[in-house]
């Protein structure tokens, strides 16, 4: 009896092993089928009428809890360098301070584009306005942290979708987050908030070109493009190239009907966002001025400037340190392996060159605009990672080689840049602090303080806003003439002028007639004027 019982147990164990092996074989065959479909495709009855090629749809890759935690941890560590974080006393410079100032100004009732200039989209300033509720920037910091986190998640999904390797996805996501934080100018830039939409659109388009997606999903594709436009217009380069790539792809695969349906779905998504934003813009009376300052002026002011060579040098450094140049080279080298995505990859390379020219020939160099290159060049490094995964080589080592070990430099850059900036501008920041303390002690929140300076740190530190905006020098002359006309009647209790700032004759006469100069000890780079 014991022997018979033992044999029954043995037969039961053998049955379980056989069932498990059959399950594994079925899983492997299913994966092989998916891979073969992704490469060759299969015809469906619906597409035979169009002569097109339809591939099986795969489910979106699932992210494990450990991966969520990893991306969140890296995002939080990098966000400690953001200027909106109130815990640290990092001071922004240039346009970064202007972006940070915009939310505080809107909380005081000022209107973007009318009362102060703005290079970002209208929704970007709405986010800054909400982020300054409670007279603090904590909420704005969480918005920026969330944008960084979502960008990391999208990069992880995209690389996992292409390489089927969680290690490759984790490595790429981690170092890409470093690049994003380094290019985002302390988190204040519009491109950071628009980046999650661009990365989602990139993942969506990659799935469509390789595996196919439902046409109805193009509604969300259009909505993402519209959101990017009203946050950071420069990011919409991806959607413009995508439209051309989809047109060529659908024509080539004889998907005329589907292509037209996708166009309608995309336009519907654009209109859903566009009408909502347009209603707000009309109510705030900034519809034309928002388009003028965020789109028209940046394009019409392109040209050769005295800072061109310095912009070129800075661009080269950023492209090398953050691995964008390496991605571009990999894109050129792997272009022959692109298969049916050949047109899309060529357009990505052309678009990246166009964005680089935009950055170079802009009157003021902004490293944050280089973030628009990231969605265009991100996919090219995945081909190298795919080869490393297939050949069972060290993925981290191959990633470092592909990037010329630039991620290590990028990490040091992100950590050290805030401290270097504070040290290099320590004298200016110190004087700004002294002026801000004096102004804050002698004014109330209802008083207006105008700072004609390279940044808005005096207004930020004193928690006082100006009654009118000081426009950049490259703005059309009409803006500067209007400033001169309004300045004489502006209700500014204090006017602070930084040395080196050019003032028109009418502004100088107004300062002499209506203001008296105030001396502040240990302040030599700022002239402080108080209204008589």
Please give a handful of descriptors for the protein shown.
disordered N terminus, transmembrane, 532 residues, 4-stranded mixed β-sheet, 65% helix, mainly alpha, transmembrane helix
Structure description:
By secondary structure, the protein is mainly α. Helices cover 65% and strands 4% of the residues. The chain contains 23 helices and four strands. A four-stranded mixed β-sheet has the order 1-2-4-3. Helix 6 (138-163) packs parallel to helix 8 and helix 9 (218-229) runs parallel beside helix 11 (256-284). The protein is globular, with a radius of gyration of 28 Å. Residues 1-13 and 16-54 have low confidence and may be disordered.
Secondary structure layout:
Elements: H1 2-40, H2 45-48, H3 65-79, H4 95-107, H5 122-131, H6 138-163, H7 166-183, H8 190-210, H9 218-229, H10 237-252, H11 256-284, H12 287-300, H13 308-321, H14 324-333, H15 342-361, H16 373-377, H17 380-390, H18 395-402, H19 406-424, H20 426-441, E1 449-452, H21 457-462, H22 477-487, E2 494-498, H23 505-514, E3 515-518, E4 526-531
Helix count, DSSP H or I runs of 4 or more residues: 23
* Strands ordered across the widest β-sheet: 1-2-4-3
Q: Tell me the strand percentage band.
A: under 5%
In sequence order, what are the helices and strands, one letter per element? HHHHHHHHHHHHHHHHHHHHEHHEHEE
Number of strands: 4
The major pleated sheet works out as: 4 strands, mixed
Which regions contain 5 or more consecutive residues with pLDDT less than 50?
1-13, 16-54
Helical residue percent band: 55-70%
Termini separation: 112 Å
| Rounded radius of gyration (Å) | 28 Å
Strand-pairing-aware structural class: mainly alpha
Characterize the overall form.
globular
In round numbers, the mean pLDDT is: 85
Region (Disordered): 20-53
Protein name: Glycosyltransferase
Organism: Lactococcus ileimucosae
Transmembrane segments: 63-85, 138-159, 171-198, 218-248, 260-282, 308-329, 341-361, 405-424
């Amino acid at each position: 009896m014991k022997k018979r019982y033992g044999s029954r147990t043995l037969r039961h164990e053998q049955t379980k092993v056989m069932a498990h092996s059959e399950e594994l074989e079925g899983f492997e065959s299913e994966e092989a089928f998916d891979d073969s479909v992704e490469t060759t495709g299969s015809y469906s009855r619906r597409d035979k009428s169009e002569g097109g090629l339809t591939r099986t749809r795969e489910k979106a890759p699932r992210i494990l809890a450990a991966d969520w935690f990893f991306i969140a941890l890296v995002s939080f560590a990098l966000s400690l360098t953001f200027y909106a974080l109130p815990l640290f006393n990092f001071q922004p410079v240039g346009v970064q301070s202007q972006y940070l100032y915009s939310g505080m100004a809107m909380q005081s009732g000022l209107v973007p584009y009318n009362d102060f200039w703005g290079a970002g989209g209208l929704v970007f300033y709405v986010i800054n306005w909400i982020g300054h509720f409670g007279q603090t920037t904590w909420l704005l910091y969480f918005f920026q942290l969330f944008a960084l986190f979502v960008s990391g998640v999208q990069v992880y999904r995209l690389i996992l979708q292409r390489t089927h390797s969680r290690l490759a996805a984790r490595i790429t996501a981690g170092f890409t987050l470093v690049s994003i934080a380094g290019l985002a100018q302390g988190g204040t830039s519009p491109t950071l908030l628009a980046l999650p939409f661009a990365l989602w659109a990139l993942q969506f388009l990659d799935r469509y070109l390789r595996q196919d997606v439902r046409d109805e999903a193009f509604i969300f594709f259009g909505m993402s493009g519209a959101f990017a436009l009203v946050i950071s217009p420069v990011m919409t380069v991806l959607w413009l190239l995508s439209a051309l790539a989809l047109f060529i792809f659908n024509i080539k695969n004889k998907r005329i009907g589907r292509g037209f349906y996708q166009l309608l779905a995309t336009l519907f998504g654009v209109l859903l966002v566009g009408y909502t934003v347009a209603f707000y813009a009309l109510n705030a009376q900034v519809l034309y001025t928002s388009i003028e300052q965020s789109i028209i002026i940046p394009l019409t002011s392109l040209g050769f400037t005295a800072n061109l060579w310095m912009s070129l040098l800075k661009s080269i450094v950023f492209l090398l340190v953050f691995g964008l140049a390496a991605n571009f080279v990999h894109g050129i080298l792997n272009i022959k392996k692109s298969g049916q995505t050949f047109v899309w990859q060529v357009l990505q390379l052309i678009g990246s060159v166009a964005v680089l020219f935009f950055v170079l020939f802009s009157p003021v160099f902004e490293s944050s605009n280089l973030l628009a290159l990231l969605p265009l060049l991100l996919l090219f490094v995945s081909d190298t990672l795919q080869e490393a995964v297939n050949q069972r080589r060290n993925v981290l080592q191959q990633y470092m080689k592909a990037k010329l070990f630039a991620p290590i430099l990028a990490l040091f850059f992100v950590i050290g840049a805030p401290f270097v900036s504070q040290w290099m501008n320590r004298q200016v920041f110190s004087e700004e602090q002294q002026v801000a303390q004096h102004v804050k002690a002698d004014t109330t929140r209802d008083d207006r303080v105008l700072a004609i300076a390279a940044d808005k740190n005096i207004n930020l530190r004193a928690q006082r806003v100006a009654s009118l905006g000081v426009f950049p020098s490259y703005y059309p002359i009409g803006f500067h003439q209007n400033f001169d006309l309004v300045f004489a009647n502006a209700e500014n209790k204090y006017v602070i002028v930084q040395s080196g700032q050019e003032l028109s004759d009418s502004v100088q006469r107004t300062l002499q007639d209506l203001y008296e100069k105030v001396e502040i000890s240990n302040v030599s780079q700022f002239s402080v004027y108080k209204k008589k």
